[in-house]
TrEMBL record:
Ranges where the RNA polymerase sigma factor 70 region 4 type domain occurs: 123-172
Record's keyword terms, sorted: Sigma factor, Transcription, Transcription regulation
Source organism per UniProt: Mucilaginibacter psychrotolerans
Family (UniProt): Belongs to the sigma-70 factor family. ECF subfamily.
InterPro entries, per the entry: RNA_pol_sigma-70-like, RNA_pol_sigma-70_dom, RNA_pol_sigma70_bacteroid, RNA_pol_sigma70_r2, RNA_pol_sigma70_r4_t2, RNA_pol_sigma_r2, RNA_pol_sigma_r3/r4-like, WH-like_DNA-bd_sf
Molecular function GO labels: DNA binding; sigma factor activity
Record-given protein name: RNA polymerase sigma-70 factor
RNA polymerase sigma-70 region domain segment(s): 25-88
Gene Ontology annotations of biological process type: DNA-templated transcription initiation
Record carries keyword Hydrolase: no
UniProt xrefs under Pfam families: Sigma70_r2, Sigma70_r4_2
Length: 198
C-alpha cells in the first residue's frame, strides 16, 4: 500500500488527468473492492461489471474529488450505491428481497449506519415510533445513542437480559415494518452489509 504522501500525490495527479495515477489507484483498491462486491452480488460477471462502473465514475468525477477527504470511503460509498442500484433493479423479485434479509448479518446496525434519503429517513423514524414505549426507548438508547446494555440497564432500572430481548424484538419489528418499502429495505441491507465486510 502506498504511503500517505504517495497516495495524496496519486490523487493530485488523477485530478490533473494523469492516466498512470488512475491505473495505480485501480491497482491499489480494485482487488478488495471486487471481493466485497462479489460477496454481495454472488456473481462474478456482475461484480466485474460493477467494479468497472465504479472506476469509470471515479475517472468521470476526478476533478470533483475532495483531496482532504478519505478516498477509500469515497470509493466504498460509490460501490455501495452501485450495488444498491443493482438490487433495486431486481426488487420486483420478492424472493430476492427475502434472500437479502436472510443473508444479512448486520440488521441491528442499519438504522445508525445507513445513508439514505430524507423520505426514507422519515419512514425509518415511523418504524421506530411504531415500537412499544419501552422497546422504543431501549432501541433508541442502545442503537441510536450508542449506549451499552449495562449503561441502559442502570438508566432504566431493568436487567441486561431484558434489554437484549427488547433489541431482538425491536429488530424483528423494524424488519417486518420495512418489508413494505423495498427501496428502503434494500438501501439499509446494502449499507449494513458494506459496513460489515469492509
Amino acid at each position: 500500500m502506498a504511503s500517505d504522501n504517495e497516495h495524496q500525490l496519486l490523487i493530485n495527479q488523477l485530478q490533473q488527468d494523469n492516466q498512470l495515477a488512475f491505473t495505480q489507484l485501480y491497482d491499489l483498491y480494485s482487488h478488495r473492492l471486487y471481493r466485497n462486491i462479489l460477496r454481495m452480488v454472488k456473481d462474478d460477471n456482475i461484480a466485474q461489471e460493477l467494479l468497472q462502473d465504479l472506476f469509470l465514475k471515479i475517472w468521470e468525477k476526478r476533478h470533483s474529488i475532495n483531496p482532504e477527504s478519505s478516498f477509500k470511503s469515497y470509493l466504498y460509498k460509490i460501490a455501495e450505491n452501485l450495488v444498491y442500484g443493482h438490487f433495486r433493479g431486481m426488487a420486483k423479485d420478492k424472493r430476492l428481497i427475502e434472500r437479502l434479509i436472510l443473508s444479512s448479518t448486520a440488521f441491528d446496525t442499519y438504522a445508525e449506519e445507513a445513508i439514505i434519503t430524507k423520505e426514507n429517513q422519515d419512514l425509518l423514524k415511523e418504524a421506530i415510533e411504531s415500537l412499544p414505549p419501552q422497546r422504543k426507548q431501549v432501541y433508541t438508547l442502545c442503537k441510536l445513542e450508542g449506549k451499552s446494555y449495562e449503561e441502559v440497564s442502570l438508566e432504566m432500572g431493568i436487567a441486561t437480559s431484558t434489554i437484549r430481548n427488547q433489541i431482538v424484538q425491536a429488530n424483528k419489528s423494524l424488519r417486518d415494518y420495512l418489508k413494505s418499502n423495498d427501496d428502503l429495505l434494500i438501501a439499509l441491507i446494502v449499507a449494513g452489509l458494506f459496513r460489515h465486510i469492509n
